[in-house]
Protein backbone atom coordinates (compact mmCIF):
# COMPACT_ATOMS: atom_id res chain seq x y z
CA UNK A 1 0.00 0.00 0.00
CA UNK A 2 1.28 3.50 -0.81
CA UNK A 3 0.27 6.80 0.71
CA UNK A 4 -0.58 9.50 -1.82
CA UNK A 5 1.68 12.56 -1.67
CA UNK A 6 0.12 15.99 -1.39
CA UNK A 7 0.84 17.92 -4.57
CA UNK A 8 -0.88 21.12 -3.53
CA UNK A 9 -3.23 22.74 -1.05
CA UNK A 10 -5.17 25.90 -1.80
CA UNK A 11 -8.03 27.91 -0.39
CA UNK A 12 -11.13 28.26 -2.54
CA UNK A 13 -11.21 31.80 -3.94
CA UNK A 14 -14.26 34.08 -3.81
CA UNK A 15 -15.79 34.81 -7.20
CA UNK A 16 -19.12 35.53 -8.86
CA UNK A 17 -20.98 33.41 -11.39
CA UNK A 18 -24.33 33.37 -13.15
CA UNK A 19 -26.27 36.59 -12.52
CA UNK A 20 -23.87 37.64 -9.76
CA UNK A 21 -24.04 34.72 -7.32
CA UNK A 22 -21.26 34.94 -4.73
CA UNK A 23 -19.44 31.63 -4.33
CA UNK A 24 -15.96 30.16 -3.77
CA UNK A 25 -14.05 28.34 -6.52
CA UNK A 26 -11.58 25.63 -5.49
CA UNK A 27 -10.37 25.10 -9.06
CA UNK A 28 -11.45 25.87 -12.59
CA UNK A 29 -10.17 27.31 -15.86
CA UNK A 30 -6.65 26.16 -14.98
CA UNK A 31 -4.48 23.50 -16.60
CA UNK A 32 -7.12 20.78 -17.27
CA UNK A 33 -4.54 18.01 -16.94
CA UNK A 34 -4.02 18.71 -13.21
CA UNK A 35 -7.24 17.04 -12.07
CA UNK A 36 -8.31 15.29 -15.29
CA UNK A 37 -11.16 14.22 -15.64
CA UNK A 38 -12.42 17.09 -13.43
CA UNK A 39 -12.49 20.65 -14.72
CA UNK A 40 -14.08 22.89 -12.10
CA UNK A 41 -15.34 22.81 -8.51
CA UNK A 42 -17.50 25.51 -6.89
CA UNK A 43 -18.71 25.84 -3.30
CA UNK A 44 -21.88 27.94 -3.21
CA UNK A 45 -22.32 28.53 0.53
CA UNK A 46 -24.14 31.68 1.53
CA UNK A 47 -26.39 33.02 4.26
CA UNK A 48 -27.40 36.28 2.55
CA UNK A 49 -30.24 35.68 0.05
CA UNK A 50 -29.43 38.74 -2.07
CA UNK A 51 -26.04 37.18 -2.81
CA UNK A 52 -27.52 34.06 -4.47
CA UNK A 53 -31.18 34.54 -5.42
CA UNK A 54 -30.35 35.92 -8.89
CA UNK A 55 -29.11 32.42 -9.63
CA UNK A 56 -27.77 30.99 -12.86
CA UNK A 57 -30.19 31.95 -15.65
CA UNK A 58 -30.34 30.18 -19.02
CA UNK A 59 -26.92 29.08 -20.23
CA UNK A 60 -25.55 26.31 -22.48
CA UNK A 61 -23.41 23.24 -21.80
CA UNK A 62 -21.81 20.78 -24.21
CA UNK A 63 -19.15 18.09 -23.83
CA UNK A 64 -19.21 17.83 -20.02
CA UNK A 65 -21.15 16.58 -17.02
CA UNK A 66 -22.24 18.85 -14.17
CA UNK A 67 -22.67 17.35 -10.71
CA UNK A 68 -24.72 19.38 -8.21
CA UNK A 69 -24.83 18.31 -4.55
CA UNK A 70 -27.10 20.30 -2.22
CA UNK A 71 -26.53 20.41 1.55
CA UNK A 72 -29.07 23.07 2.56
CA UNK A 73 -31.72 25.09 0.76
CA UNK A 74 -33.02 24.08 -2.66
CA UNK A 75 -32.10 24.51 -6.32
CA UNK A 76 -34.87 24.78 -8.91
CA UNK A 77 -33.88 23.80 -12.45
CA UNK A 78 -35.35 23.85 -15.95
CA UNK A 79 -33.92 22.98 -19.37
CA UNK A 80 -34.47 23.28 -23.08
CA UNK A 81 -35.75 19.70 -23.29
CA UNK A 82 -38.71 20.48 -21.03
CA UNK A 83 -37.30 18.97 -17.85
CA UNK A 84 -37.79 20.74 -14.53
CA UNK A 85 -37.52 19.94 -10.85
CA UNK A 86 -36.16 20.88 -7.46
CA UNK A 87 -33.09 19.59 -5.63
CA UNK A 88 -33.41 19.64 -1.85
CA UNK A 89 -31.00 19.15 1.02
CA UNK A 90 -28.99 15.95 0.53
CA UNK A 91 -30.01 15.54 -3.12
CA UNK A 92 -27.70 15.15 -6.13
CA UNK A 93 -28.15 15.89 -9.81
CA UNK A 94 -25.73 14.39 -12.31
CA UNK A 95 -26.38 16.04 -15.66
CA UNK A 96 -24.67 14.70 -18.76
CA UNK A 97 -24.80 17.65 -21.16
CA UNK A 98 -23.46 15.61 -24.08
CA UNK A 99 -24.31 17.17 -27.44
CA UNK A 100 -25.82 20.23 -25.82
CA UNK A 101 -28.43 21.58 -23.48
CA UNK A 102 -29.67 24.96 -22.30
CA UNK A 103 -30.68 25.12 -18.66
CA UNK A 104 -31.02 27.34 -15.63
CA UNK A 105 -30.42 26.74 -11.94
CA UNK A 106 -32.03 28.98 -9.35
CA UNK A 107 -30.94 28.53 -5.71
CA UNK A 108 -33.42 29.14 -2.89
CA UNK A 109 -32.40 29.28 0.75
CA UNK A 110 -33.87 27.29 3.60
CA UNK A 111 -36.18 28.81 6.23
CA UNK A 112 -33.18 30.64 7.75
CA UNK A 113 -32.00 31.96 4.40
CA UNK A 114 -29.03 29.60 4.21
CA UNK A 115 -27.93 28.05 0.92
CA UNK A 116 -25.12 25.54 0.56
CA UNK A 117 -24.10 23.17 -2.18
CA UNK A 118 -21.35 22.20 -4.57
CA UNK A 119 -21.00 21.94 -8.32
CA UNK A 120 -18.35 19.80 -9.98
CA UNK A 121 -17.67 19.66 -13.73
CA UNK A 122 -16.46 16.39 -15.21
CA UNK A 123 -15.08 16.14 -18.73
CA UNK A 124 -16.46 13.71 -21.30
CA UNK A 125 -14.22 11.70 -23.66
CA UNK A 126 -14.43 12.50 -27.35
CA UNK A 127 -16.59 9.43 -28.04
CA UNK A 128 -19.30 10.74 -25.67
CA UNK A 129 -19.16 14.50 -26.15
CA UNK A 130 -22.03 14.43 -28.65
CA UNK A 131 -24.14 11.82 -26.84
CA UNK A 132 -27.78 12.56 -26.03
CA UNK A 133 -28.16 14.64 -22.84
CA UNK A 134 -29.52 12.93 -19.74
CA UNK A 135 -30.20 13.59 -16.07
CA UNK A 136 -29.81 11.45 -12.99
CA UNK A 137 -31.72 13.13 -10.16
CA UNK A 138 -31.05 11.33 -6.88
CA UNK A 139 -32.86 11.98 -3.60
CA UNK A 140 -30.80 12.06 -0.44
CA UNK A 141 -32.68 9.10 1.03
CA UNK A 142 -31.36 6.91 -1.80
CA UNK A 143 -27.68 7.66 -1.14
CA UNK A 144 -25.96 4.96 0.99
CA UNK A 145 -24.90 6.33 4.37
CA UNK A 146 -22.34 4.17 6.23
CA UNK A 147 -21.16 4.66 9.82
CA UNK A 148 -17.99 2.85 10.92
CA UNK A 149 -17.24 1.66 14.47
CA UNK A 150 -15.17 4.76 15.27
CA UNK A 151 -18.01 7.07 14.21
CA UNK A 152 -16.63 7.88 10.75
CA UNK A 153 -19.53 8.48 8.39
CA UNK A 154 -19.43 8.16 4.58
CA UNK A 155 -22.16 9.02 2.06
CA UNK A 156 -21.46 7.14 -1.18
CA UNK A 157 -22.77 9.35 -3.96
CA UNK A 158 -20.93 7.68 -6.85
CA UNK A 159 -18.79 4.55 -7.02
CA UNK A 160 -18.38 1.64 -4.61
CA UNK A 161 -16.95 2.10 -1.13
CA UNK A 162 -17.01 -0.09 2.00
CA UNK A 163 -19.26 -2.54 0.18
CA UNK A 164 -21.90 0.01 -0.82
CA UNK A 165 -22.49 1.43 -4.32
CA UNK A 166 -23.83 4.91 -4.97
CA UNK A 167 -27.02 5.39 -7.02
CA UNK A 168 -25.47 7.33 -9.95
CA UNK A 169 -24.31 5.08 -12.77
CA UNK A 170 -22.92 4.98 -16.30
CA UNK A 171 -20.47 7.83 -15.84
CA UNK A 172 -17.60 8.05 -18.32
CA UNK A 173 -14.75 8.87 -15.93
CA UNK A 174 -15.49 6.00 -13.50
CA UNK A 175 -15.63 8.49 -10.62
CA UNK A 176 -15.89 8.01 -6.89
CA UNK A 177 -17.61 10.82 -4.97
CA UNK A 178 -17.70 10.50 -1.18
CA UNK A 179 -18.98 12.84 1.55
CA UNK A 180 -16.92 11.92 4.64
CA UNK A 181 -17.24 12.98 8.29
CA UNK A 182 -14.50 11.96 10.75
CA UNK A 183 -15.02 12.54 14.50
CA UNK A 184 -12.67 14.70 16.56
CA UNK A 185 -9.17 13.27 16.95
CA UNK A 186 -9.83 10.14 14.88
CA UNK A 187 -7.20 9.06 12.34
CA UNK A 188 -8.59 7.28 9.30
CA UNK A 189 -7.20 5.80 6.08
CA UNK A 190 -9.26 5.61 2.88
CA UNK A 191 -8.40 3.46 -0.13
CA UNK A 192 -8.44 4.97 -3.63
CA UNK A 193 -7.55 3.00 -6.75
CA UNK A 194 -4.09 4.00 -7.94
CA UNK A 195 -5.21 4.83 -11.48
CA UNK A 196 -7.51 7.61 -10.27
CA UNK A 197 -6.70 11.30 -9.91
CA UNK A 198 -7.92 12.45 -6.52
CA UNK A 199 -8.63 15.50 -4.41
CA UNK A 200 -10.22 16.31 -1.06
CA UNK A 201 -12.25 19.41 -0.26
CA UNK A 202 -12.58 20.31 3.42
CA UNK A 203 -15.72 22.31 4.18
CA UNK A 204 -16.34 21.79 7.91
CA UNK A 205 -13.87 21.53 10.78
CA UNK A 206 -10.17 20.92 10.35
CA UNK A 207 -7.86 18.01 9.57
CA UNK A 208 -4.29 17.03 8.83
CA UNK A 209 -3.66 14.90 5.74
CA UNK A 210 -0.57 12.71 5.74
CA UNK A 211 1.90 13.52 2.99
CA UNK A 212 3.97 10.71 1.48
CA UNK A 213 6.58 13.23 0.35
CA UNK A 214 7.40 14.04 3.99
CA UNK A 215 9.27 11.91 6.53
CA UNK A 216 7.27 8.68 6.73
CA UNK A 217 4.04 10.58 6.18
CA UNK A 218 3.73 11.04 9.94
CA UNK A 219 0.62 12.85 10.96
CA UNK A 220 1.08 14.40 14.40
CA UNK A 221 1.54 17.95 15.67
CA UNK A 222 4.60 17.30 17.83
CA UNK A 223 7.83 15.35 17.70
CA UNK A 224 7.46 11.62 18.32
CA UNK A 225 10.36 9.36 19.37
CA UNK A 226 12.87 11.92 18.11
CA UNK A 227 11.50 11.86 14.55
CA UNK A 228 10.68 15.01 12.63
CA UNK A 229 6.97 14.95 11.92
CA UNK A 230 5.18 15.93 8.75
CA UNK A 231 2.44 18.45 9.39
CA UNK A 232 2.65 19.93 5.90
CA UNK A 233 -1.10 20.09 5.52
CA UNK A 234 -3.48 21.25 8.23
CA UNK A 235 -6.61 21.96 6.28
CA UNK A 236 -9.55 24.06 7.40
CA UNK A 237 -12.76 25.25 5.79
CA UNK A 238 -12.83 25.66 2.00
CA UNK A 239 -9.46 23.97 1.48
CA UNK A 240 -8.62 21.89 -1.59
CA UNK A 241 -6.02 19.12 -1.19
CA UNK A 242 -4.70 17.70 -4.47
CA UNK A 243 -3.07 14.27 -4.23
CA UNK A 244 -0.46 12.49 -6.32
CA UNK A 245 -0.28 8.79 -7.20
CA UNK A 246 -0.88 6.12 -4.58
CA UNK A 247 -3.71 4.05 -3.17
CA UNK A 248 -4.29 5.53 0.31
CA UNK A 249 -5.26 8.85 1.83
CA UNK A 250 -4.82 9.22 5.59
CA UNK A 251 -6.49 11.98 7.57
CA UNK A 252 -6.56 12.94 11.23
CA UNK A 253 -9.51 15.02 12.31
CA UNK A 254 -9.01 18.19 14.31
CA UNK A 255 -10.53 18.99 17.72
CA UNK A 256 -14.00 19.60 16.27
CA UNK A 257 -13.92 16.79 13.74
CA UNK A 258 -13.88 17.28 10.00
CA UNK A 259 -16.19 16.89 7.03
CA UNK A 260 -14.81 16.76 3.51
CA UNK A 261 -15.49 15.49 0.02
CA UNK A 262 -13.11 12.87 -1.37
CA UNK A 263 -13.44 12.75 -5.15
CA UNK A 264 -11.48 10.72 -7.68
CA UNK A 265 -11.77 9.61 -11.29
CA UNK A 266 -9.94 8.00 -14.19
CA UNK A 267 -8.03 10.49 -16.37
CA UNK A 268 -9.32 10.86 -19.92
CA UNK A 269 -5.95 12.01 -21.31
CA UNK A 270 -7.34 13.81 -24.34
CA UNK A 271 -6.76 17.34 -25.66
CA UNK A 272 -9.11 19.99 -24.26
CA UNK A 273 -10.55 23.00 -26.09
CA UNK A 274 -12.49 24.95 -23.49
CA UNK A 275 -14.42 28.19 -23.37
CA UNK A 276 -16.87 28.81 -20.53
CA UNK A 277 -19.49 26.05 -20.24
CA UNK A 278 -18.49 24.27 -23.46
CA UNK A 279 -15.59 21.80 -23.50
CA UNK A 280 -14.52 20.03 -26.69
CA UNK A 281 -11.33 18.38 -27.99
CA UNK A 282 -10.39 20.81 -30.76
CA UNK A 283 -10.64 24.51 -31.45
CA UNK A 284 -12.70 23.74 -34.59
CA UNK A 285 -15.27 21.82 -32.52
CA UNK A 286 -15.44 24.67 -30.04
CA UNK A 287 -15.98 27.25 -32.77
CA UNK A 288 -18.69 25.06 -34.32
CA UNK A 289 -20.52 24.89 -30.98
CA UNK A 290 -20.59 28.68 -30.68
CA UNK A 291 -21.72 29.07 -34.29
CA UNK A 292 -24.61 26.73 -33.51
CA UNK A 293 -25.47 28.78 -30.44
CA UNK A 294 -25.66 31.90 -32.57
CA UNK A 295 -27.74 30.35 -35.37
CA UNK A 296 -30.11 28.36 -33.16
CA UNK A 297 -29.00 24.81 -34.04
CA UNK A 298 -27.15 24.05 -30.79
CA UNK A 299 -29.84 21.68 -29.45
CA UNK A 300 -30.01 18.35 -31.29
CA UNK A 301 -33.45 16.78 -31.83
CA UNK A 302 -34.22 13.82 -29.55
CA UNK A 303 -33.55 10.42 -31.10
From TrEMBL:
Domain Pirin C-terminal: 177-298
Segments forming domain Pirin N-terminal: 21-121
TM spans (from-to): none
InterPro entries named in the record: Pirin, Pirin_C_dom, Pirin_N_dom, RmlC-like_jellyroll, RmlC_Cupin_sf
Coiled-coil regions listed: none
Signal peptide start-end: none
Pfam families reported for this sequence: Pirin, Pirin_C
Cofactor note: Binds 1 Fe cation per subunit.
Residues that hold Fe cation according to the record: 59, 61, 103, 105
Classification via Gene3D superfamilies: Jelly Rolls
Keyword Mitochondrion recorded: no
Domain of life: Bacteria
Molecular functions (GO terms): metal ion binding
Cofactor: Fe cation
Keywords from the UniProt entry: Iron, Metal-binding
Family listed: Belongs to the pirin family.
Protein name (Swiss-Prot/TrEMBL): Pirin N-terminal domain-containing protein
Lineage, broadest ranks: Bacteria, Pseudomonadati, Pseudomonadota, Alphaproteobacteria, Rhodobacterales
